[in-house]
TrEMBL record, chains A, B:
PROSITE patterns: D_2_HYDROXYACID_DH_1. GO terms for molecular function: ATP binding; metal ion binding; UFM1 activating enzyme activity. GO terms for cellular component: cytosol. InterPro entries: D-isomer_DH_CS1, ThiF/MoeB/HesA, ThiF_NAD_FAD-bd, Ubiquitin-activating_enz. Coiled coil: none annotated. This is Ubiquitin-like modifier-activating enzyme 5.
Amino acid sequence: MEVEIKQLLADLQSLDQSLPDPSLHASLHKIQSRVEHLANLVKAEPVRRSKVQDMSTEVVDSNPYSRLMALQRMGIVENYERIRDFSIAIVGVGGVGSVAAEMLTRCGIGRLLLYDYDKVELANMNRLFFRPDQVGMTKTDAAVETLSDINPDVVLESYTLNITTVEGFETFMSSLKNKSFRPSKQGSGVDLVLSCVDNYEARMAVNQACNELSQTWLESGVSEDAVSGHIQLLIPGETACFACAPPLVVASGVDERTLKREGVCAASLPTTMGVIAGLLVQNTLKFLLGFGQVSPYLGYNSLKDFFPTMQMKPNPQCSNVACLTRQEEYALAKPERDAAAKAKLEAELPTEEGPLHDDNEWNISVVDDSEPEGLDTRSSDALPEGLTHELPTADAFQKLPTDAPVTDNDDLEDLRKQLEAINSA
Amino acid sequence: MEVEIKQLLADLQSLDQSLPDPSLHASLHKIQSRVEHLANLVKAEPVRRSKVQDMSTEVVDSNPYSRLMALQRMGIVENYERIRDFSIAIVGVGGVGSVAAEMLTRCGIGRLLLYDYDKVELANMNRLFFRPDQVGMTKTDAAVETLSDINPDVVLESYTLNITTVEGFETFMSSLKNKSFRPSKQGSGVDLVLSCVDNYEARMAVNQACNELSQTWLESGVSEDAVSGHIQLLIPGETACFACAPPLVVASGVDERTLKREGVCAASLPTTMGVIAGLLVQNTLKFLLGFGQVSPYLGYNSLKDFFPTMQMKPNPQCSNVACLTRQEEYALAKPERDAAAKAKLEAELPTEEGPLHDDNEWNISVVDDSEPEGLDTRSSDALPEGLTHELPTADAFQKLPTDAPVTDNDDLEDLRKQLEAINSA
């Protein structure tokens, strides 16, 4: 608009010079001052904050990162600024995904990839994030508009597509593989995928992509009655994938689409979705910045403020071929993992002349998941009082089996019972 | 801006009529068309959604309440539209209060009273809600700007004041007493006060006001290291008030202000604050609309995704005089409460000719908090199989003591231990 007003003022100026009658000048000057007033009004429109080069720890009102960098001084995070190196893909920019995107944007995440094919409607206004003036825009465009105003430091990529179509899935895959943001990164081009979709098919598409790319992801969901939800961590090969343990409705052979009858819409609440987005991004931050414990599964039953947790091993009979490949790889890499864990533990133990680390500020412990029976080769004489080796010696590793992780046959049955208990709670 | 452009066009029109030279008309017409283009640009600026008369259950994209009214069809809420009758006071419009206000606004709450004396700074941008273009505005003004755009149906009242000053406290009290929004309401003019402040003095001011007005309130807080928080329900006379059990730092005689050293700012995260705001407003909705169970206390330890709960009885030695008065009133009203509960139970039981309610969809139960020993006067013969009276008969009530609720002397000690355990967790 500023450009238009400048042109207008130039035109008025040239008209002024060609006016013959001096009495007309007064009228024209009045018009000119009106336009100048307009120009001031337009200038008074919001100025966007400029990009910042480095995250400063300085405690001043003008520093958008002071309260985040304070996490370092508080002893929660070792190096907060690392967050600028990370890329997060958010699939589904609805009631959970949009709030998750805003939280990550305000935290100063490096890069966000946003996927959705839907448009903003007034019917979305009962959840946080979108505004009535964005009705009719695609959710991805509206999100980029809002997020880039909030924090211009974040690199935003918007993908207006449906990942359950062949074409959409291909674009989804290639965008995840793109490593131009951090070419040195191992694996895919993103550090974590957040699934914030509202249906089974889209979750299966995310599951397929992440299994193929060996990409860790966090699943999230909110119930149709709006009063419960969950988040779940999925590490291909290491934890159950989404196809390892299909949800009850699928397991019992009911087509999800038949559940959604004509004219019947699911309920939703900004509260439940805000809590789930908060838990999702909090676990994302713990995962990226290495503090606290990332929850393998966390439920939220809002009627009773009950938060169930559980853990799921992969299903060796999983129908997803890529999942089975990841399970094999995970089993094969076990000796390597154990050796790395052992080396890390030993590196942290005091050498004869080195200083003794007598505190454990980060509460880090290395847990042995091998069978401990008959392997008690701990050289406790070399350790200070109160410390013991949690891992067997390198020789003992030779005797360990390297089979695929054994899954109890009861796992799925247990899971169904737990889900039923949660649903009926 | 639209008004200014209209005036401009009128002026150009009158200039056009007084121009002598036809060659000048062309220049002027060019100017006119530029201004018309500007007018269109201004018109293209966001249109606000109009107010709606009634909350519709219609499932169309243009209905901002369809997903909330669906809570009725889902069997969660009996009458969602009642939310328009309720007034909520939010004290402190920061990281928790602003998000709580947005959630309630999107839920279509009747009236919101907002209290804060602070201004928006760039340093607030790591939490949800405020935008960089609002820097410099008071938080209350910025909140009203954003919230009225989101939902013009909500009546917003903005109080830019500090409730810990004498004048501020008086205005706070009189605004809570004002019943013009719903003159028929019992008690104060608000249904619930949400405390979203960040310091002890302000919490004590809210506590004082609510004890004086016998006003139920919900307390909320987030730790200085940003990774834990809590909400707590306070019903004057019935539960502990904020002065009944002062926080550890106050109990141990440390002045809170000495903890905040020069140049040291507390850490904060949009995740923790979003979760606390979500839990706070979810419990507000449960309290207002009568579904689920309102948590007396709910903590959030984000490092371990641990959610401690507890309950606190009032302290008969509380230093707050108004709290002691409320405790006396509560004790005196016990027979009345018991009789009402008994009447309610009996009204819900089947009469001889009436239909039998064999389900309990809302899972409502009346629990007897009197001593059951020796009072087994249940007329179980009058009840259908599987149902028993949970309350003694009216005659038995005569024998019950009406003393003040007995508080175990160990309560405070227990509470300190619990708090220590939570903090060290």
